[in-house]
Design a protein that fits this description.
seven-stranded mixed sheet, Methyltransf_Superfamily, alpha/beta, about 270 residues
């Protein structure tokens, strides 16, 4: 499969993603997902789109030591960082494409995906593939971002991308925040073979110690940085613009910023 541009987290992108965005927007949701995973008491867990291991580490901490975790991602550069975080046993890392998982049928009790489904080029097909590797009675557990309006940092970053590159604005932020319609998600899961779906909305107000540090991740920590450089724009100018708008909206750092995501649990029957 040709990797979609929005899913190409390579080069220095994983480092900025992990250090600048991870503690603010990903950690809390990783812990929430891990608690939900633990309540299902799985023995064999597959994590898809594990990224830099933020959710993998949360899973390892929440689940019993005997639980086997296989953490996968399409981007080897992301997994290189993930592997430095986890020394405990029963965790293995492997590059894998969610559209064609290299695992046997009915191999896992639980499939977990932290903010990855938005990047799948064919979501019903990816859900069907996740269902294939689940044991009967197993669960597909994942989260997806709410709308840009519910996650103002994304709205601000996208708007500044349009302002700095009006002739060819980067469209990256439309992908992570473009799958917030729960009816569409349910329809895709139904098309992927799931019939029983639970859904919850999870909101956080997260502490942000430094707006510029966070805004650096919003620019350098995703594939949009490639489009910015190609367009001849200085990325640091965009960092300053985003940091300034976040400060104007939420006050001088340290401050707090709202986040919203949707969590889905789909059972295989």
């Amino acid at each position: 499969m040709t990797t979609p541009a929005a899913a190409q987290f390579v080069g220095d992108i994983p480092r900025f993603y992990d250090q600048h965005l991870g503690p603010i927007i990903f950690q809390g949701y990783a812990e929430d997902l891990a608690r939900r995973a633990a309540s299902l008491a799985p023995s064999d867990v597959l994590e898809i789109a594990a990224g830099t291991g933020i959710s993998t580490a949360a899973l390892r901490q929440a689940l019993p030591p005997a639980t086997n975790i296989t953490a996968t991602d399409l981007n080897a550069a992301m997994l290189e960082i993930a592997q430095t975080k986890i020394s405990a046993g029963n965790v293995r890392f492997q590059t894998a494409d969610a559209m064609a998982l290299p695992f046997a049928d009915a191999a896992f009790d639980l499939v977990v995906i932290q903010f990855g489904v938005m990047f799948f080029p064919d979501r019903p097909a990816a859900y069907a593939e996740a269902r294939r590797v689940l044991k009967p009675g197993g669960t597909l557990l994942f989260n997806a971002w709410g709308s840009m309006q519910s996650n103002p940092f994304g709205e601000i970053a996208h708007r500044d991308a349009e302002r700095f590159l009006p002739d060819n604005p980067p469209k990256f932020y439309l992908t992570p925040f473009g799958y917030s319609d729960s009816a569409q998600v349910r329809a895709d899961l139904l098309a992927g073979g799931f019939r029983e779906v639970d859904h919850a909305v999870v909101q956080f107000s997260r502490d942000v110690p430094d707006w510029r540090h966070f805004a650096t991740g919003a620019i350098y920590g995703n594939p949009m940085i490639v489009d910015i450089r190609a367009g001849g724009v200085n990325p640091d100018d965009m960092v300053e613009a985003i940091a300034g708008e976040l400060e104007e909206r939420f006050g001088k750092a340290p401050s707090r910023m709202p986040l919203e995501a949707h969590v889905y649990a789909a059972k295989k029957r």
